[in-house]
Design a protein that fits this description.
The protein is of the alpha+beta class. It folds into two domains: 19-120 and 195-213, Hypothetical protein ph0010, domain 1 (Glycoprotein, Type 4 Pilin), CATH 3.30.700.20; 123-193, Dna Ligase, domain 1, CATH 3.30.1490.150. It is 28% helix and 22% strand. Strands 2-1-3-8 form a four-stranded antiparallel sheet, covered by helices on one side. β1 and β2 (69-75) form a beta hairpin.
Length: 215
């Protein structure tokens, strides 16, 4: 399987990355998996050696799939470090720290597909009921963050592929947050965000050295 490059941006996002830049990010993700498998740590990158676009603070998720099935997904909702660091850190975390899966093995790497999602800034939604919230969602576009007291969870826009109906999307998100599917409270908070997402199979991703990044 492979992902088509079909980015979607929120109005507060910094802008689309070029195909060359996306390939660099995918190469960094693969390089971090290779580093993690060999040294048990993400790819070590000196931000000072990177071009400006890689040093911008951005929030990302990295998703791994094997034979079309989820193999790991880890990310950050708030930008806190350089884009290159966030991608490499989340790539290895998705392979080694997702509690739903055992750590990735070297034998699995060649058969993986990787997706990088760069997040826009989350926007708090205003709604009067669960039905009103569902009517305001944009299938295929909105990623959601749900917060209810100590419970929280997020779904990337890609989850719409398996949960195309807003009501189902919300129920599954509540389950992910540790709530009952039919749970509702006026204190639930929902924020939405959009992503620029792109991916490829590991075998098709070029490895880019840090000297190429500095060009």
């Amino acid at each position: 399987m492979s992902w088509a490059t079909a980015p979607i941006l929120s109005t507060d996002a910094a802008g689309l990355h070029t195909e060359e830049q996306r390939q660099v990010l995918l190469g960094l993700a693969v390089g971090s998996l290779e580093s993690g498998l060999e040294h048990n740590r993400p790819l070590d990158i000196d931000v000072a050696d990177c071009p400006g676009w890689l040093t911008e603070k951005r929030a990302t998720f990295v998703t791994l799939k094997s034979a079309g099935k989820l193999r790991g997904c880890i990310g950050t909702l708030r930008a806190h470090t350089a884009l290159c660091k966030d991608v490499t850190g989340n790539a290895w975390a998705a392979a080694s720290r997702d509690p739903r899966f055992s750590p990735l093995t070297a034998a699995e790497l060649p058969g993986l597909a990787i997706q990088v999602s760069i997040l826009g800034i989350p926007e708090k939604m205003i709604f009067t009921s669960e039905q009103d919230l569902a009517s305001r969602l944009r299938p295929g576009i909105d990623g959601l963050v749900l917060t209810e007291r100590s419970a929280s969870g997020t779904f990337l826009p890609a989850v719409w592929e398996s949960c195309p109906e807003p009501g189902i999307f919300l129920r599954q998100l509540k389950l992910k947050a540790g709530l009952e599917a039919d749970y509702w409270s006026d204190s639930i908070e929902i924020s939405r965000y959009t992503t620029e997402s792109f991916g490829a199979e590991v075998k098709d991703i070029e490895r880019r050295g840090i000297q190429r990044l500095a060009e």
